[in-house]
Structure prediction request, 345 residues.
Amino acid sequence: MNEPRINIGVGEIHRGKIECTELEDGTPVILPYFVMRGVRKRPILLLNAALHGDELNGIEVITRLFEKLNPMQLHGTLLAVPVVNTLAFRARSRVDPVDGKNLNRLFPGKKEGTVTERIAYHFFHKFVKKADFGIDLHTGMKGHLLVPHPRIRVLSDFSPSLEHARALGTEIIFYHEGHPGMLNIAAGKIGIPIVCFEIGEAGRIDENYIQAGIKGIINFMKYFGMLEGEPEIPEKQILLKDYIEIPSPIGGIFHPKVNAGDVIKKNQLIGIIKSPFTGEKRYVKSPKNGVVIGIRSQPLVRPGTTAAWLMSFEQGNVLPPLKKHIKEVTSRTFSITKEKGIEIK
Ligand SMILES: [Zn+2]
Prediction:
């Protein structure tokens, strides 16, 4: 059977895999998956990580949620693919090491395509299409530390759901154009809201960002009634459009003076670049008021290498407080059987 086993008994957890295609020596290319079935089947929340194979924090977020959550406290089903691009994961690489393709530009995939296109096809048709909504976990690239935030992508024929992004409970929400073939755009076009959630930096396991990822998903699940309790959503959330890349003026070693997530003023010092060859020292300052969404964490830079990513407040909107529509999930009593699932009295 090459379909994920999603219909499992109430309170059960299942870990399995399906095969997408094979390599030149016949080695199968798999999609590993976890399912946790709560007291009801729906909604089905899809969690996935490692569309880019070197982005590790999201993998840990998913495995921890499956260790931590009690399925009998879950209303709905968690369907998770902890590593979507296993080939890139094995190669410690963002993209497929053989064809160099970026999986997150290939959705909804091709049944008879290249290996990466087939991974996209199987993931999209066998997991994404079964979900009611999803959270797609990412990080910044290697050397590029990103503050936790959701990314909303818009194309002319696609409007994403701001509410789903806000339910993660971060203060900053990022809004930009995106590319065709991105998972959240392809899924959104068939009516399945998927939020891209950025937490940290590729190639690293970072506890603070893992905790931020878990917190965001728990908020999302509370907001949509999959878990009891109130989500922690800041009263003020800011929608910011695009970002400014702040380049290094010279080559050398970058010494950051701000952190990812810091709110900074125009002309504030972002960092210092020192050349160990000439002794030259240059100060990198902020061109605008804004928030540092990303900072260079690998210190060696060339001229033009981005030292920091800034979102300007000039293009920002403070969103009105989110109207809560938390469903009452605790006040009923119910009986549960393996055969019938939940029966509400
Ligand atoms: Zn990514």
